[in-house]
């Protein structure tokens, strides 16, 4: 095939290009018909296109509309992502990614400068919760359920509020049977239509174990469980995978040694069908004991972020650990980039990205209001620019519905009842790299 590049002399592709220069040649060329590029076998044509970046693809389809049918091929976008960000899946070496183009669009829309992201403060209707921190927040359908929390050490709440993300209205739930305890610093996760919670403290003397809220019946109950029942604790983290409810870490007060705080690094799994606990004796890189961390499910694995330990936070962590239930193995991830926060952050799972807002600085007790993103494909941290960020805080609640981040409450020297949102969905749509397809 003969091509002409920017008016230069024609030359033979087979003899003249190298892999590194292939994308530049193709994206700047004028295709001649001796023979047509479309005469190549489809597998060769896909290989050629895979050397292009996104701008090269734009240029290519503007020259030859017939090539547009190839640009939706997943393998092309996988190559583009790998070339741009070295984005290769970490969780499973051979994990199938349903849409590398979607991954490209989302990451580009979040990481580029002047991305147009802007936090808004919501003035909700209905019965709004009072200022508080260390509540739990869980998503079921279009609703976010806020349970418990505290205004100060000796004032904790036994209420449940439901926020409708369509109408922006709060509703205080009338619990059908027994009342929740006045507690905070518990850990929670959703299984089906139920919110499973473990731990927490009333600020005086009572610690709590397993409790469940049924969002269909609005019933609260304390189920009987068996097996390796974990001890009561606070400031731990929970996540669910299918019917299994996991908790990790946290702290408890050792009354036999003068109420010294004991930091934990144990992992427990509850089978919510049989209500049987198992103390998971995992192998590998076991995380250091901590509290104030976060735990998420990513691709049937657990991802652990951050936390700290010590009476005065002598130890702070901004590390990432991954637990694989199939192999019963912890692995400490090798991350790129930096995130200068550690404890009591507000964290969100958005697709294959972990977004982290606020929390306490790694260096001191300073509260932050920056937004960072971890790409779980290549384990790279990136700071995300956004306008009008909420006031710096920690110990707030964070939830995601339809690519919108919701932030409620928290501690900023005093408790707050502010409700903020950051809508990512419009940016994801606006930055669809193929939306200019001339065929459409």
From TrEMBL:
- Where does the F-box domain lie? 34-80
Matching entries from Gene3D superfamilies are given as: 1.20.1280.50, Kelch-type beta propeller
The answer to keyword Repeat applying to this record is yes
Where would one find the signal peptide in this protein? none
Q: Which Pfam families match?
A: Kelch_KLHDC2_KLHL20_DRC7
Q: Which domain of life is it from?
A: Eukaryota
| InterPro entries given in the database record | F-box-like_dom_sf (IPR036047), F-box_dom (IPR001810), Kelch-typ_b-propeller (IPR015915)
Tell me the SUPFAM superfamilies matching this sequence. Answer: F-box domain, Kelch motif, NHL repeat
Question: Keywords assigned by UniProt?
Answer: Kelch repeat, Repeat
PANTHER family from the UniProt entry: ACYL-COA-BINDING DOMAIN-CONTAINING PROTEIN 5, FIBRONECTIN TYPE-III DOMAIN-CONTAINING PROTEIN
Can you name this protein?
A: Kelch repeat-containing protein
The species this protein was found in: Tieghemostelium lacteum
């Amino acid at each position: 095939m003969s091509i002409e590049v920017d008016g230069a002399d024609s030359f033979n592709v087979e003899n003249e290009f190298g892999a590194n220069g292939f994308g530049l040649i193709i994206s700047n060329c004028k295709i001649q018909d001796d023979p047509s590029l479309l005469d190549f076998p489809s597998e060769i044509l896909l290989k050629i296109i895979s050397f292009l970046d996104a701008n090269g693809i734009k240029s290519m389809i503007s020259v030859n509309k017939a090539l547009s049918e190839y640009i939706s091929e997943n393998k092309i976008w996988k190559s583009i992502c790998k070339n741009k960000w070295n984005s290769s899946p970490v969780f499973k070496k051979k994990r199938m990614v349903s849409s590398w183009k979607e991954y490209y669009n989302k990451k580009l829309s979040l990481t580029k400068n002047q991305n147009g992201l802007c936090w808004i403060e919501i003035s909700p209707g209905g019965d709004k919760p009072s200022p508080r921190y260390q509540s739990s927040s869980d998503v079921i359908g279009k609703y976010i359920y806020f349970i418990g929390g505290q205004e100060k050490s000796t004032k904790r709440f036994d209420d449940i509020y439901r926020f409708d993300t369509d109408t922006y209205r709060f509703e205080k739930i009338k619990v059908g049977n027994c009342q929740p305890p006045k507690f905070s610093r518990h850990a929670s996760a959703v299984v089906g239509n139920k919110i499973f919670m473990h731990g927490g403290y009333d600020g005086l003397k009572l610690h709590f174990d397993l409790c469940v809220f049924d969002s269909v019946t609005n019933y609260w109950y304390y189920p009987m469980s068996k097996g390796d029942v974990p001890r009561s604790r606070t400031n731990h983290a929970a996540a669910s995978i299918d019917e299994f409810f996991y908790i990790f870490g946290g702290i408890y007060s050792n009354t036999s040694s003068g109420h010294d705080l004991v930091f934990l690094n144990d992992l427990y799994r509850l089978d919510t069908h049989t209500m049987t606990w198992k103390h998971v004796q995992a192998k590998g890189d076991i995380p250091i004991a901590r509290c104030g961390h976060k735990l998420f499910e990513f691709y049937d694995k657990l991802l652990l972020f951050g936390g700290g330990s010590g009476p005065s936070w002598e130890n702070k962590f901004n590390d990432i650990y991954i637990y694989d239930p199939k192999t019963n193995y912890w692995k400490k991830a090798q991350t790129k980039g930096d995130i200068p926060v550690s404890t009591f952050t507000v964290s969100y799972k958005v697709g294959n990205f972990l977004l982290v807002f606020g929390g306490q600085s790694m260096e001191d007790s300073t509260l932050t209001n920056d937004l960072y993103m971890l790409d779980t494909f290549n384990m790279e941290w990136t700071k995300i620019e956004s306008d009008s960020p909420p006031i710096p805080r920690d110990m707030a609640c964070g939830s995601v519905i339809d690519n919108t981040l919701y932030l409620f409450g928290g501690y900023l020297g005093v408790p707050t009842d502010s409700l903020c949102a950051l809508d990512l969905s419009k940016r994801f749509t606006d930055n669809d790299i193929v939306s200019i397809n001339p065929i459409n």
